[in-house]
Each structure stands twice: as structure tokens, then as C-alpha cells.
Design a protein that fits this description.
membrane, ABC-type vitamin B12 transporter activity, transmembrane helix, threonine-phosphate decarboxylase activity, cell membrane, 4 strands, 298 residues
Length: 298
């Protein structure tokens, strides 16, 4: 396992956040858009070819970069790989984006940059609820999952995961245009996030004061959502805060009925979101502690 690389990459993201360069995810998005313009059709096969093609291309480039770094001195190779890998981690950016809801003059507009649901008619409670769900779900997608694949497979692991996650965010929708074209991307993303989503839930359990309540919410609500993965970190967060998350939401003018997760013991308000965001410090300490221990023992 790549404990040293994962620890240094996480530390780089924790200190510097998103680096001032064209993000690899932007390049992946450009590839997806170009492929869609040229080869789109309302069938599964073209979407499957996109998934296979982008994964192969990402794997080839990342393996080549890792190989070339092998010619550098060990310390420099580790540093370069860690900086590159840190672009696949999003703890700082995620925290800053969600925390902006607490201070923004127009929180609905700030939220609209983070979610696909309609925000213009949301109540204050609905804004904070969406912020909590975004924080919980993206702790898995943007932090734990990429770190998991970096730890297992090095730079190629995190690069391929980001390719999968980018395709999911761009084409894996159950709309008329993407129902078939994006189906393969959705399935692959569900598989890739299966373990990380549950690890994220366990991390939230570790940080919660009332662990029994979190376990109760996880067992009862973790598999309630349409996604096989998103419900676990959201249910864990709801249990940790003693709030009810989920419920109906509007997407593109249509109400989507979703189950409620958690227990409505406390209000979903600014205090709840602040409390959730304060978990960042605990998450950083646990993650870096585990990675440092792994590096010392390996």
C-alpha cells in the first residue's frame, strides 16, 4: 500500500487546497464533452465505450507519469506524486464551499453551485439540510473514496477513480438524454463507491458523541435512498447531529420524493451545519494518524 504517498498528498490538500493550475478533472470533463458531441446516441453502447475509453486513457497517462517519476530521487519522486495526487482530494474545497452557506449574503445562490436541485424557493431549513447532505455525501466522493484508491493503487488508482466520478457527475442522470448513455457510468461509480461510502459512515460514527444513535440510523436508514451508497454517510451524519435529512426535493421543476433519514431531535439550522463542519478537524486527525501509523509499520 502507498501509505507515505497518501499521507503526503492528504497533507498537501489540507494545507494548500486546490492548486492554481488547470485541474485534471477539467481535462477529463473536456474529453467527456468532446466524446459526447461526436458519438452521443440514446443507447448504452456509446456510453460504455466512453467509460472504457476514459478509464484506459487515464490509466495509461497516470502509469506513464508514475513511471517517469521513478527516475527522480526518491524524495523528489514522492513529492511530485503527492502534489499530483492531491489534486484528486477535495477536503479543503468541499469544506470552504459548504461553509460559505453560513456567511453568504445569498445562501440559495451559493448552494446552487453545489447541488443539482432547485434552490430558488428553498426555505432556510432546506438550504441547511442540502448543505449537510452535500457535506456528508461528498466526504465520501471527494475525500475518502479518492484517498482509498490512492492508498491501494497509488497515482493510477486516484486518477481512475476521479475519471469514474467525473463521468458520474456529468452523464449519470436518469433523464431522457442520459438514461441509457449514462447507465454504464452510473453502475461503475456505484461499484467504485461501495466500500468508501461505508468507510465514511464509520468515520462519522467514530467522531459522534452518541455512537449508538448513529448505528441505529445507519442500520435503519443507510439503504433507503435510490443510490446504494449515498444513504450511508448521510444517515450517519443525521444520526450524529440528531437531525432528519432527506425528504422531498425539487429537481428541474419536478418534486422528487425521497425518504427521511435520521431522527428529528434537533432543528436543521446554522448550528447543525456548523457542528457538522467542525468534524473536519477530527477527520484530518484520524486520517493522518492512520496513514502515519501505516507508513511506520509497512
Amino acid at each position: 500500500m502507498f501509505f507515505e504517498l497518501a499521507a503526503l498528498a492528504y497533507f498537501v490538500d489540507m494545507i494548500f487546497g486546490e492548486l492554481p493550475c488547470k485541474h485534471p478533472v477539467v481535462l477529463m470533463g473536456d474529453f467527456i464533452n468532446a466524446f459526447e458531441r461526436r458519438f452521443y446516441s440514446d443507447r448504452i453502447l456509446p456510453g460504455a465505450l466512453l467509460v472504457v475509453g476514459l478509464i484506459k486513457l487515464t490509466l495509461l497517462i497516470s502509469i506513464a507519469v508514475a513511471y517517469l517519476c521513478g527516475f527522480l530521487p526518491d524524495w523528489l519522486s514522492l513529492t511530485v506524486l503527492a502534489v499530483l495526487a492531491s489534486t484528486g482530494l477535495a477536503m479543503n474545497m468541499l469544506h470552504e464551499s459548504v461553509a460559505a452557506l453560513l456567511t453568504a449574503e445569498q445562501p440559495k445562490q451559493a448552494l446552487s453551485y453545489l447541488v443539482s436541485r432547485d434552490t430558488q424557493d428553498m426555505t432556510e431549513t432546506e438550504v441547511y439540510k442540502a448543505g449537510l447532505e452535500t457535506w456528508a455525501e461528498n466526504l465520501s466522493d471527494g475525500v475518502i473514496a479518492p484517498l482509498f484508491y490512492l492508498l491501494l493503487f497509488g497515482l493510477p488508482g486516484i486518477a481512475v477513480y476521479k475519471a469514474i466520478n467525473t463521468m458520474d457527475s456529468m452523464i449519470a442522470y436518469k433523464t431522457e438524454r442520459y438514461f441509457y448513455f449514462g447507465k454504464t457510468a452510473a453502475i461503475v461509480d456505484d461499484i467504485a463507491n461501495y466500500i468508501p461510502a461505508r468507510l465514511t459512515a464509520l468515520l462519522i460514527v467514530a467522531l459522534a458523541k452518541d455512537k449508538q444513535r448513529v448505528w441505529q440510523c445507519l442500520r435503519r436508514d443507510g439503504n433507503k435512498l435510490e443510490s446504494p451508497n449515498a444513504g450511508y454517510p448521510i444517515a450517519a451524519m443525521a444520526g450524529a447531529l440528531g437531525v432528519a435529512l432527506g425528504g422531498d426535493a425539487s429537481y428541474h421543476g419536478q418534486i422528487k420524493h425521497k425518504p427521511t433519514l435520521g431522527l428529528a431531535l434537533n432543528p436543521v439550522d446554522k448550528s447543525a451545519l456548523t457542528q457538522a463542519l467542525q468534524m473536519k478537524t477530527g477527520i484530518n486527525l484520524i486520517v493522518l494518524g492512520l496513514l502515519a501509523a501505516g507508513a511506520l509499520l509497512s
